[in-house]
Design a protein that fits this description.
It is a single chain. With 204 residues, the protein is mainly beta. It has helices at residues 29-36, 152-157, 186-189, and strands spanning 22-27, 41-43, 47-49, 54-60, 63-64, 67-70, 73-77, 83-90, 96-102, 105-106, 120-122, 127-130, 132-134, 140-144, 165-172. Strand 13 (132-134) and strand 14 (140-144) form a beta hairpin. The longest helix has 8 residues, at 29-36. The N and C termini lie far apart (62 Å). The relative contact order is 0.22.
Length: 204
């Protein structure tokens, strides 16, 4: 699947993901019934993560898959052999870096995931869809719902312990307030005085 990638610089404001790591678990209808004990409520569309900085969901078929919520966890029903994409929207007015994993593999290189790896950059109010693990700077291997034994992680790395989960970590840009899009010290600059009101002091 064709998908061109370019590079840009981005300095994270913190080593830890903003608002923690968000997850979406997927399974077939029977599997989700077992995982939730049939005790869940549903919702539609993308949902907020990273304290509202982004909205995200799983797109397959004609739209965003319905969400199943149970005990603080989020699930979607996947149909075997159906392709899917991870839909992400930046709600802020600044650039964000998003590190995404599927089945424990980083979507940028298809290797074991880590929040220390670099991710995709979302421009302010931009929406993107990640359709697969990147196999080169020009192409990706499509995401597809399958049994554990047929998953990309199992076929590629012989590892399936993390099959069935999509992860998201969001990082803000150093020195920028994500909601205003302005430099983090801009607000303080309006309270400065052109002349010192107290004697200058020098550290020793």
């Amino acid at each position: 699947l064709a998908s061109r990638m370019t590079y840009t610089s981005f300095r994270r404001s913190n080593d830890s993901p903003h608002g923690g790591i968000a997850s979406i678990y997927y399974n077939d209808k029977r599997g989700i019934a077992e995982m939730t004990g049939r005790d869940y409520y549903t919702s539609t569309g993308r949902k907020r993560a990273a304290n509202g900085l982004v909205e995200w969901g799983i797109r397959s078929g004609f739209g965003i898959l319905r969400n199943h919520h149970s005990t603080g966890m989020r699930y979607v029903v996947g149909h075997r052999n159906a392709r899917y994409a991870i839909s992400l929207k930046n709600n802020s007015r600044s650039r964000l870096e998003v590190v995404v994993s599927v089945d424990g593999l980083d979507v940028v290189d298809g290797k074991p995931a880590s929040v220390r790896k670099r991710g995709y950059i979302l421009s302010p109010e931009q929406t993107i869809e990640i359709r697969g693990w990147r196999s080169s700077e020009e192409e990706v291997a499509s995401f597809m719902f399958s049994r554990v034994g047929g998953s990309y992680s199992h076929l590629k790395h012989g590892e399936s312990s993390n099959a069935g989960v999509v992860g998201l970590a969001v990082f803000t840009e150093k020195g920028v307030d994500p909601w205003s899009g302005q430099s983090a010290d801009t607000e303080g600059r309006f309270s400065v005085s052109p002349f010192a009101e107290f004697p200058l002091r020098r550290a020793y």
